Structures are given as structure tokens and as C-alpha cells.
User: What shape does this take?
Amino acid sequence: MNMDNIQAQVNKLSLLVRLETIEFLAKEDRIKYGAAPLTDEEMTLFKSMANKLPCTTRRFRDLFEDVHWMQQERNMYPHPANIGEMEWCLKYRHIGMFQRCEHSWLPYKEDADLRRLPAFRELSKIYSNLLANGKKILPPVEMDKIENEANKIINGLALELTKEK
Amino acid sequence: MGRMKMEVPNRITVDIADLAKLSDEMTNDNQLGAFIRKSIADLKAGCTSENVDPRVSKVFENALDKMKCIQDINKRYCNSKAIEKAKKEKKPFGAYGHVMLTIDEGKHLRQLYGEKLEDAINILDSYIENNGKAAKRYKNHASVLRKNNWVWQRMMENEILQKRLDNAKNGRKSFAAMERERNVRIIRGEDPDGRTDTVKDHELSLTELHELYG
Assistant: This one.
């Protein structure tokens, strides 16, 4: 079992799960509140902007709900959530402080709609193989950040060694 | 240019603005100005003056000649019977010259059809050319060309047909047709917008996904 290969697959599939979750929730939101569906270009833009928000995949559905609570509290006419409102809620409401949770890159077990997404099905196959082999499920890892941090440490050590000499 | 009616036996209107201008120009010499003003007053009264001052004889003669010319012109165009006759006179229009319209009818139809009046006239003209009985049946061609009659409706149909041909040529479709095609694609499970070269997210690599979505 090539763990590097599995890690790469997990990294890609977890990102796909996140993007598909965002797309599903955005479409559902627009249908619930009677707005016109987003075009391909608008959906791509929405997904890219939502992906950059400091919100885990698991808490995205809660974020959408929190946005609608905020609209209700402010006596706004109910409308689909937009990126600005989501960003504001993450910054100034409790949803932004309760992001730390177990398996944050996966949707809730009770959320049957999101667990039916194709990317999650592929990911669940990989995890079932790992569990069958007695191993634990692998979380996604950002290899670029790890490499950058490792390089920083190595460069710092090298500088100190040269200074001492 | 002011028009003044003069009381003469045949009731002719005369334009003597030229004489009035002369009198204004010659106000420096009061005698001349007064003489010309007297002449104008005599003309208004219906008689010409024979007291011609040699200093202004040429000017007055020219003005009188001009006035006579204006009188002749006004005889032709200001006579009420001649005017009425000209208004009622119908002229032939169209490629074959079957459509007969007066000036006022032509003006009204021009407002109705705009630039496409010639096309409407040619429709009626060709119909009369091909149907011998239509010439007797249609006594008033302006009423045949009026709004909501068969010529008007034929013009509207031609306009719609032309628009459809332009749309088909340029590949444009109506909103209803586009919506129907979209629904058919959704039922078939294809991309609703008809794109065949779209790339799904799962076909991209991780680096490409990061580039696209951050």
C-alpha cells in the first residue's frame, strides 16, 4: 500500500468534497429562497471565494444557517446567502469561533445529502480500505506549506552554523 | 414676408414687402421715403400713382415689375378653385402606375408606413396589375392602404418574416426556443447550456484545482 499515493488522493478528494459541498449548499440555498440559479462562471467565482473563507467543510452548512439567522435578526428580507454576509458572520458571530472539530474536512454523518456527493463516495472507499487494513483515516495535508516550513527551518539552521564559524 | 389683400375686381393678393423695405431704406431722405409710402398707400387703395419722381423712377419701376410678377404668381396659386382642383387631383404611383393617390393622402400614408410606403404601394399595384377586376373594385386606393387592412397586414407579416430570417441567418433564437432546448438537454442528462468542452472538477489535478479555486 503506497501511502504517498493514498495521501495525494486524499488531498485531492478532500478538496473536491469541499468544493462540491459549497456548490450543493449554494444551489440549495438559491432554490429555497427563490433566486435564479447561478451560471457556470458565477458558480466558479462563488466556489473560489467560499473556498478561501476560514470555515471548515463540516461547518459550511451551519454557516449558511447562521447567515439566515443574521438576516432574520436584522429584519432583512430573506434572500440567498452571499460571500460578504458569510465573511461577516465568520468574523463577528460564534460560528467563526467554533471551527475546531473532529474530522473537519468531512461532512456530518447525519447529512445524507452531502454524503451522497461523488467525491465523498470515492474518499469513503479509500478510507474503508485503510480501516480494513487496520490503519486510521488520513487527514488532508498541505504538502506545500510543510515543505516551506521545513525549508525555513533548514535555512535558519544553515545560517546559524555559518555565523558561528 | 407679409401678405396684404388688395381690393381689386378679381380679388388678388399681392406681396409688397419689397416696397416696404425700400421705404425703410430711404428714411434718410424724408421726401423720398414719404413718396414711396404714399405709393404703397395708393396701391393698397387699389390704384397706381402716376407721379413718378425721376430720382426714384428706376427703383419704383423695378419694384412695380416685381410686384406684377408676384401678382401673376399669386394668380396661379392663390386662386381658391385652382387650389381645390390641385388638392383633389390624383396622381399615379407604383411600378405599373395603377395606385392613384392625392397629395394629402400621400402625406398621411407616409406618416403611417414611413420608409416602407413604396413597398406597400407596390403590393397594391402588383395586385391590381394581376387582377383586372381589382381596378374596378377599388375606387379609393388610400382606403385600401389604410391601417389594419390587408395591405397593412401583409406588410407586418413581411416584417416578422424578415426578422425570423435574420435571426436564423445570425443563429439567434427566441427565448422560448432556447428554453425548450435547454429543458431537452436537462432531460437527456447533458450539460444544460450545451457546452461539450467543459472540464469537471474531478478531471483536474490538485495543482490545477488550487490554481482555479485558491
